[in-house]
Amino acid sequence: MKWQFLWFFPLGVFAVEPLPKSDPAKVGMSEKALAKIGPAVESLIATRKLAGGSVLVIRKGQIVYQESFGQRDIESEKPMEKDTLFRIYSMTKGLTSAAALMLCEEGKLSLDDPIDLYLKELKGQERWESLRKTTSLRRKTTVRDLLRHTSGFPPTRGGQVLNLRYRKAGVMDREVPLMNTVEALKGMPLLDEPGSRWLYGMSSDMLAAVVTRAAGEPFENFLHRRLIKPLGMKDTAYSVPADKADRLATSYRLELKGLKVLETAAESKYLKDPAFKGGGSGLISTITDYGRFLQMIANGGEFQGKRYLRESTVNLMRTNQLPLSIPQISFGKEQRFGTGFGLGFCVRFDHDDRWDKDAAIGEYGWGGAASTHYWISPKHELVVVTMEQTMPYNWNMEKTLKPLIYAAVEKSEKE
Fold it and tell me: Does residue 401 belong to any structural domain of this protein?
C-alpha cells in the first residue's frame, strides 16, 4: 500500500507523498560500499568532532541510505533521529533563490532589473572609499548580482568601519523586521562595485526584500505558500513550535578539548518567532524536508507531478554565472579553486586538487554555519545531505563522506 500524508489548506486537501526508497543495487549503488558511511561518522563522534549527525543519500530520485548517528543532545543522552530539527543557516539561501526565480518566470522580476526598482530606499547608493569619502557607482546592483553574490553589499561580520555601520543599522538582527532593515540602509554605501567581486554577505537577505516587494506579500508567506508547503516540507519554518521543541538538536562549538554547548533546545532563540525573516539564514528544517527541496532541483524543477521552475531556470542555478573577471569563489585567503557560483548554488566547473579533490565536475551545493552540507551530482544522479550542529563551520562530514559515497556508485553507472 502506498501511503500519502494529507495536509489541509484553505483551498482543500493536498496529498504529499514521501520520498520513495530503493535497494541500492536497483539504482546502481553498492550497499556494501554505503555501509562504510556509518563507521566513518561514528569515528568523528568518537573523536569528539561532532555530537551526532544524519546522512541522506538519494540516487535517481530514490532514497538508498538514510541513517542518524550519535546524539542530538549529549548532556541528556537524546539520540539523533531522522526527524531531528536543525538550524540550517545558509541553506536557507537555496530556497530564497528558487523563490526569486519563480517570480522571474512570472514576469514580476527580471534578472537584470536594478534592485532599487523594488527597494526605492536604496536609490542613489554609492561605493565606500573611506570614512569620509564615497564615489558614484559605475552601474547599479541587479537581481542577478544578489543571486550570485556579486552585489557589492558588505558582509556584516568583521570589525571594519563599514561592517560595524551595517550592524548598527540592525542588519540581520532577529528583532528588526526585514523591511525595516531595508529602510535603515537608506544612504548606506556599498563595499564594492557591483559585479566586481564575489563577496558572501547579505545579498540573499536583500533578495528576500526584493521578493517581498515584487510578490506583494511578506517573504516568509511567499516562501511557505509557493515552496515549503507544496513540497511537503512540514518541519521547515523560522521558529520551532512548542510541540516540536524536544526534537531540536543542541548546537555545539568544536574546541581543542572537544565540544562545548552553545545553545540547548530548551533555551534556543528559535523557540520564539523572530521579527527578522530574511533570505540568507534563519530557517529550521529536517534532513528529509531539505532532501525534498533538493530533489525538486535535481529533477530540473519538477517534483511529484508539480512543476515549480522550468528546467532552463534551474540550469541557471546550477551552472557557473560568474564573469570571467572572477575566476572562483573565495572566503578571504581561502580560494575555492575550480568552484564558481550559479544563481543559487556553488558549482564545480573544473577539477583542481587544491580544493575539494573528491568533487565531481558539475557538482553543485552549499551548506550552513553549523556544518550542515549538501551536494548534487547530475552525472551521478546523486543528492546528498548531511546534518549536524557544530560550529564554527567545518568540512569534516563532507570531506569524510564524499569519497565513500561516490565510490558506492557502481562502475558501470559512472561516466
Answer: yes
